[in-house]
């Protein structure tokens, strides 16, 4: 199937437009001149309600759907609320994908996560590693939901030629991230903890785990760029990894956040907290071969995110 040409006036439904990914996609589409974005807050449209989602699609008939709505969280939230992570994500994606198909959406992009891959997948992780081994237990519930989304897109493409593609981003960060002290991902959690420690003149900051896990981080504006690139250029069965290609240890990340925030105290490691998967670097060579590459370095992205946090969350 060849990629369709997307008109800038096409009706584009960005599900989850207030979240980290959705808000970045809206910024990107707006800057490119897309004029007909369909945006609904959670209060306006409950994506877990099949009847509400179907009525929305029946009325507005979105031509393009970017499925960036999901229940997400860091290692602690995933480990603590497994029922919420599997149930809510399966509901949101099943409702949106099936209604998009039923109401003849021209193209849908489903967003997954690098945690779909086995805990001990070969590194860097190629797309072909999917379903080749057991998942990381702390986030298998979320991962199973996301794997189901990929498979649903593939099944609809095979059986009905529905143009649904899936992108698998690595660990993301940026404006509109969740800065909750316990339920967020490591990068926003540390930005907040080091900032508050600086203000309170604390001597120590506690960071979870051993510091040895390796993670790859991508600024969400780079992801939004890749999403639009894939919508315009890709129409294939297999999902596509979207990473920065650069990995850092959690210890290196903590040092970098400390530097960006300007905190002077010590770091203490809490080994009672889980490390999660030891390493998670994606092989994004497929996307590179299509002609896309990331632009934002971790240091620049961290500084940008810290500024956003200062202006919008905590001053
Ligand atoms: O960001 P994070 O929760 O995501 O944790 P995962 C990454 C690493 O940072 C782990 C350590 O080794 C944590 O132990 N860490 C250190 C911290 N301090 C903190 C802290 O204050 N908060 C957090 N959250 N971590 C998630 C999955 O796994 O990755 C999700 O649970 C999703 O499902 C996401 O896939 C991208 O990379 O471990």
UniProtKB/TrEMBL annotation:
Gene3D superfamilies in the cross-refs: NAD(P)-binding Rossmann-like Domain, UDP-galactose 4-epimerase, domain 1
Entry keywords, A to Z: Isomerase, Multifunctional enzyme, NADP, Oxidoreductase
EC number: 1.1.1.271
Tree of life domain: Eukaryota
Domain (NAD-dependent epimerase/dehydratase): residue spans on this chain: 12-243
Organism encoding this protein: Salvia splendens (Scarlet sage)
Entry protein name: GDP-L-fucose synthase
Pathway field: Nucleotide-sugar biosynthesis; GDP-L-fucose biosynthesis via de novo pathway; GDP-L-fucose from GDP-alpha-D-mannose: step 2/2
Family of this protein: Belongs to the NAD(P)-dependent epimerase/dehydratase family. Fucose synthase subfamily.
Molecular function GO terms recorded: GDP-L-fucose synthase activity; isomerase activity
Signal peptide: none
Catalytic reaction(s) noted: GDP-beta-L-fucose + NADP(+) = GDP-4-dehydro-alpha-D-rhamnose + NADPH + H(+)
